[in-house]
User: What shape does this take?
Amino acid sequence: MKKLPVNCPSCENPLIVSQLSCLECETVISGSYSLPVLLQLSKEDQDFIFEFILTSGSLKKMATKMQKSYPTVRNKLDDILEKINNLKTN
Amino acid sequence: MITLLFKPFEKYSEQKLLITGVIATIFGALVTYLLNCKFIGVLKMGFTETPSIGQSFLDSIIILSCLTSFLFLAAKYIYKKTRLIDIIVTTLVSFIPLYLLPIFNINDTIKIATESILQYASPELVNQMPLDNLTPLVIFGFFTLTIIVWFIALLYNGFKTASNAKGTKAMVVFGIALILADATSRVFIHYFN
Assistant: This one.
């Protein structure tokens, strides 16, 4: 799976969506759409959130599934929350 | 392997770590009793006294309680969501390397060598000190330093995992907690012996 770039490789500023296309009828929409906060996270963080939802938000189940200790999983979640808050502020 | 030796708190559940830590503590108290060793503080061990089995267990309980209390306070200061169980397992498991040190005192090797060296502890006699007794002390000193580094690395990694600690502030708070725990445990051990 290709990695979605979220920052400009040239100036490192956040990228926006400027074009959307329909693969069926080849309709192209141009505009200026900002990326949702969750998509601006790294692939690893997005996967973590996905797993978190699949385990109904149980950190204990997540820890068992990931073969990590409970505090490690909780720390990871806290770090992601901090990143999300920073992205929302920016 | 590195995770097992230095960062077991990131991988293993608190139940597994607690069982390992409790078994190790019982083993440690028995080994210190059987090999004539004594923990005088968190960071101090002596070979000159001969403890009773009850005293060995009491010393372990005092040291582990002091360390857990100060580390828990420090961790709570850094991170409000810190759980007591994570600090307890950190303390219990981090002590495992220190229980290897009494093994050097089989047949009172270190105790005898120390007492022999102490006889030459004056400016007039220091040149006559026999090297035979100095060698086991030098080897023991080297292993002690290695094991103390391992102990502190384990303790800090456990503290970091339990409290999501990052940066210099966390290291300073950890250092202060360790020094206070060492000082307090020495006072309590002195009082109860």
Remarks:
- The two ends of chain B are 40 Å apart (CA to CA).
- The CA atoms of residues 82 and 163 of chain B lie 5 Å apart.
